[in-house]
Amino acid sequence: MVEQVDNIINKLSGIETTSLTEQHDSNNSDQKFYCDAKNQEQLNDFVDSVRPKLVALVGFPGYGKSTFIGSLYQLLTTNLSYGGYNLVDSDTYVGFERRVFLRRVNNDNTSDTKRNVLGENDILHLKLRSEGDGSYHDILVSDKAGETYSKYISSDRDTETDNVLINADIVVFFVDAEMDSGRLATHNLLVENYESLLTRLKIQQKLLDGLSYIVVYSKIDKVNTDELKKKLSERKKQTCGVFKNIIGRDPESVCDVNSTDLNDNHLEALFCKLIQPKGSYQEQHDLDWVKSEIEKEK
Question: Are strands 136-143 and 123-130 parallel, antiparallel or unpaired?
Fold first, then answer.
């Protein structure tokens, strides 16, 4: 399936499959493309005179992270202006296209999104221009496969190598609203998984004091009966309490979104918040955190 996805993208975009780095066998699903998503070791490539804003999307498999970021890309590329900004460039166009092409080729106009696979590059880049003063800023979004966070629950080694969370300007935690409003056993598993993940991240000092974070309840359109809505409302207190108890502070906001609905007002408000530039920028000498971590490992 992955190979078929890549072949379709190449036909649609006209992009050569020859990598700028090492070439891989054409049957290898790990083949890398020019302008594909980057990995965390390549983050410094985006640094110029200021540090880009780094947004980390966190959630387990099927929680809607890729659909979410795919919808933001769709809105930025189809609107001349969005949230007071214009999309002027991206170094990861193919990375975005790999996430949104299904919704473009489906005849029934559904918003399917290609799910990330474990180990796939996760860093996506947006360069935006303010309509107000014409200034430019960069946004980096980490969209790791949900299986990555499942592995974090039981692996100190995998958690230790994550340098995105500790340096993120804002972390967006995804909760599957359909799952959280479903059977009690399913809800309990969701809570247990997040307790385990957050506890390990806290122990590994990946969640720093003062962390800025948002909790997003995705697939809210699936919670479509009074009974499910009541269950979700009651269970939100416990689920959100896990984040507060372990992280040590309330989230900036808790949002209910339908990421497949590009006209969702809650989704638009959240996107506008995420694409805003940072309030202040750090100097260049504070930016090479990836290189610093690599040096520590030598």
Answer: antiparallel
